[in-house]
Amino acid sequence: MGRSTPPRKQVVLVVEDEPLLRMMAMDLVEEAGFQAVEAADADEAVTILETRTDIRIVFTDIDMPGSMNGMKLAAAVRDRWPPIEIIIVSGQVRLSEGDLPERSVFFSKPYDWQKVTATLHRMAGH
Fold it and tell me: Which of 80, 88, 102, 109 has the most CB atoms at less than 10 Å from its CB?
């Protein structure tokens, strides 16, 4: 019998400028069974998205330094990489369904790990 290789984990890009919060979000994503890739701001996230084809979900904070905040990043992802799902989080801003790009979900900080994990699995088709 041939050995089968384990299925590759789906990749989630975590975009968060606060190092501690980024580390916590990376832990959440990895504990949910995904491979996490990190970016400190939206500009770095776009660079990663331009060079990798395996990103399935973008998990982004709204408030970040640089040329784009998380909302502009989400709009860019929806425009340039339509298959990618988006999770948007913020401790400052409150968004309603109408403010969000198509196929994206918003969570207020501090977010519920179980709800975010369930959303990651739903978006990944698990």
Answer: 88
Q: What is the pLDDT of residues 56-99, one digit of tens each?
A: 999 999 999 889 999 999 999 999 999 999 999 998 888 777 88
**Could you write out the DSSP letters of every residue in 45-64?**
HHHHHHH-S-EEEEEEES--
The token pair that represents 12 in the structure block: 């989630």
**Residue 50 is encoded by which pair of tokens?**
């331009």
Max Cα-Cα span within the chain: 55
- Residue 90 gets the label, from left (phi > 0), alpha (psi -120 to 50) or beta, of beta
Contact 108, 91 (CB under 8 A): yes
Beta-ladder partners of 87: 59, 105
The encoded tokens of residue 120 equal 């990651």
Residue 59's beta-bridge partner residues? Answer: 14, 87
Q: How many Å apart are CA 32 and CA 107, to the nearest integer?
A: 17
